[in-house]
Every structure is written in structure tokens, then in C-alpha cells.
Amino acid sequence: AKILGIETSCDDTGCAIINEKGDILGETLHSQNLIHLRYGGIIPDVAQDLHRKYIEPTVHKTLELAQLNWLDIAAIAVTLEPGLPLSLAIGMKYAKHLSRKYNKPLIPVHHMEAHALVARMQHNISFPYLTLLISGGHCLLALVQGVNKFQLLGQSIDCAPGEVFDKVARRMKLRNIPEYSQLCGGRAVEMAASKATDLNLFQLPLPLVDHKDCNFSFNGLKTSVMYQLFRKEKEHSIEADKLIPEANDLCAALLMTTSRHLVHRTQRAMDFCHNNNLLPDEKKQLVVSGGVACNNYIFNTLTELCNEFDYKIYRPEPKLCTDNGVMIAWNGLEKWQRNIDVVSKNINSLDIKAINVDTEVDNRAE
Ligand code: ATP
Ligand code: FE
Question: Domain Gcp-like, which positions (predicted)?
């Protein structure tokens, strides 16, 4: 079976076709990144207009790259939630149109579940496993027990790490530096941090140190970084983009503290799984995914944690960590093979506000 996946939850219009073995037969990604950079952030109306403009060419191009036509496609998988409602609506509407026109079943996909499952496409990872999802809109730990069985262990009580990186990069005007001009905030912060010279110049507070649950918080960290930046600007009477090397040192401090926080909470989740016999020894596996998982410093510190506790660690390749159509197609395939959520009749029942996953926080994690 060949599955076509459509992703429009945020600012990327993505489409991909995969076969039953998980080979990518065609993929297309239209990124709005550079347009939103000019506005200083994503404006939902603008994102929606761009999805509307690019969705059809993106899907057509994918079929063309795969050298397939609609007769070859078994089903269409599409992101249902979470995301920007205006953006999600375009993908869903177009998927419904295709479903009617070519008589194909629709498979609704949860964007975060897709981030967590796509690691299985290229690695031999069996259920259950632990996942840490770190992205522009989320930060969560979950136990993945099956394709549609996720047990949430903890999540951010405020903002997400990718969002902090993006805001700090913008406030630092890192994009004024030519070699960073095309990069997303997280990648720019990573590059700046790699040039740090004094790793002890800034001390940032480690969030939620006394909390015994698996939740995250990044607001305090963001505020501290912004405050330190302000202080240094005043001290030297210059703006952030001229504030080198301090800005590099501050990026390094942000990255180190973020990593420590992620490691701290992930270790708690490992303890919780161990104490409740949720993960047998042979299933000690951690999957890290979402855009922030591209960060090598963060991944390396998590790898050290995994080595210490005898976990295997996996992450999808970078282009599959950030938003893409492949992960939607893969999740669609996993559901198709188990006949989960395959909607043939009554596709109008699919509504972008519908909720079909267990999103209750498991309080035993406390
Ligand atoms: P969500 O998945 O929560 O809905 P999203 O889809 O917008 O959010 P992703 O596409 O998964 O997020 O990830 C984008 C985020 O990843 C951005 O905030 C970006 O700054 C961050 N990011 C990308 N590369 C890196 C990197 N190398 N280091 C740190 N952060 C990064
Ligand atoms: Fe995402």
C-alpha cells in the first residue's frame, strides 16, 4: 500500500508518498520560513494564504517525483491537530477534496504522534518506548505503547524550547549576521553558542528543580536571557547584534541550561517508568524528535543520560525532526496496516477540532 501524507499544521506545506516498507517515493516541502522572518513571526492569516497557494502544486509535485498517479495511492493521511486552526483547515479541506474526487480513504493524524512515530520508519524500535518531543510549540514526555496509545507523562506548563530559541534569536537580531540570515532561530542560537568563549559569564536558573513531576517550564529561562541581554546592552551602550562575544556566551548558557532541564525531566520519566514497571529492560528506548531534536548539543547530553541508564537513544534524521509530510504518511501507514482511524465514509465527520488521543496527564508521574 502506498500512502500519501499531507502536513499543514504550522508554516510548512508538506507532502510525501511512502510505500509499505517505509521507503520515501516522493516528498515536497514548501517552507514559509523566509516570509515569516520578514514579519518577525508567523501571522496565521499569511500562513493560511500561503498554504492555500502551495497545497495543490506541492501534492502534484510529489506525485510527479514518485512517478505515480492516484490509482497507485491507497489512502490519504492528513494532520488533524494540533496546530494553527487556519493552517490545519487548508490541509484538511484539500485532503477531503482529494478523497472525494479519487475515492480514497482519509486517515487523520495527530501531529505530535507523527513526530514520535516517524523514528520507527528508519530504526528498529518496538513498543513500548519513551519519547521526548521538543519543538516550536511543544515540550512533552510520553510513553508510546502503540500507534494510537500514548501516555502523557509531563509537558510544558508554559512555552516550548523552540519558541524560546526563536524569540531570543529575534531579540538578539542574530539574523543581521549574514551567515545566520537564512536560519531558523534554534539553529542560529546553536551556531552562536558554538562560538562562545566564556561559558561561566552567565548563570541561568535551572527550571523546576524542586518539582518531582515530569513537567517542563521555559518562561523563566526566557525572561532571564532577555534580562541579561538588556543589562549587557545598557552596560556597553550598544544593541544586541553588536554585542559579541557576550551574545554568543549567552546563547551557550541558554543551550546548556535547556539541555540540563531536559535531561533532568527525562531522568524523572525514566525513574517513573522503572518504578511502575512500564518499560521492561529490553524496551529501554528513548526517541527524541521535533525540530529542537536537530540540536546536537541537546542530543549529545541526552545521549550521555541514556548511556548512564542503559537506554538506547534514537532520533529521526534532521529533515524528519522538523515538520514534514513524510511523518504524516508514515503515521498514516502505521494506522492503515492496523485498520485504525481509516475513514472511508462520512469523511465530513473529520473536524480539525476533534480530539482522538489520550491527552490526560498521568498524575502518577508526580
Ligand atoms: P509543534 O511540532 O510543537 O507543533 P512546530 O511544528 O512549529 O511545533 P517543528 O517544526 O517541529 O515545530 O520545530 C521547529 C522548531 O525547531 C523551531 O522553533 C526551531 O527554532 C527549532 N529548531 C530547529 N533546528 C534547531 C536546532 N538546530 N537547535 C534548536 N532548535 C532548533
Ligand atoms: Fe512540529
Answer: 24-330
C-alpha torsion sign, points 120, 123, 128, 129 = negative
When pLDDT is cut at 50, 70 and 90, the band that residue 47 belongs to is very high
Pocket of ligand 1 contains residue 138 by CB under 6 Å:
yes
Q: Which residue from 254, 284, 249, 248 is spatially nearest to 266, judged by alpha carbons?
A: 284
Give the burial class of 209: count Cβ atoms within 10 A of its Cβ; 0-12 exposed, 13-18 middle, 19 or more buried: exposed
Residue type, 358: D
Q: What is the pLDDT of residues 269-315, one digit of tens each?
A: 999 999 999 999 999 999 999 999 999 999 999 999 999 999 999 99
Q: Is 325 in the pocket of ligand 1 (CB under 6 A)?
A: no
Q: Out of 322, 324, 352, 359, give the residue to mutate to test ligand 1, the one with the largest number of ligand atoms within 8 Å of its CB.
A: 322
Which residues are within 8 A (CB) of 180 and not within 5 positions of it... i.e. 6 or more apart? Answer: 169, 174, 187, 188, 191, 192
Tell me if residue 145 falls in helix, strand or coil. strand
**Paired strand residues for 361:** 152
| Kind of pairing between the strands at 129-134 and 139-146 | antiparallel
Residue 78 Cβ < 6 Å to ligand 1: no
Alpha helices in 161-218 (DSSP H): 161-171, 185-194
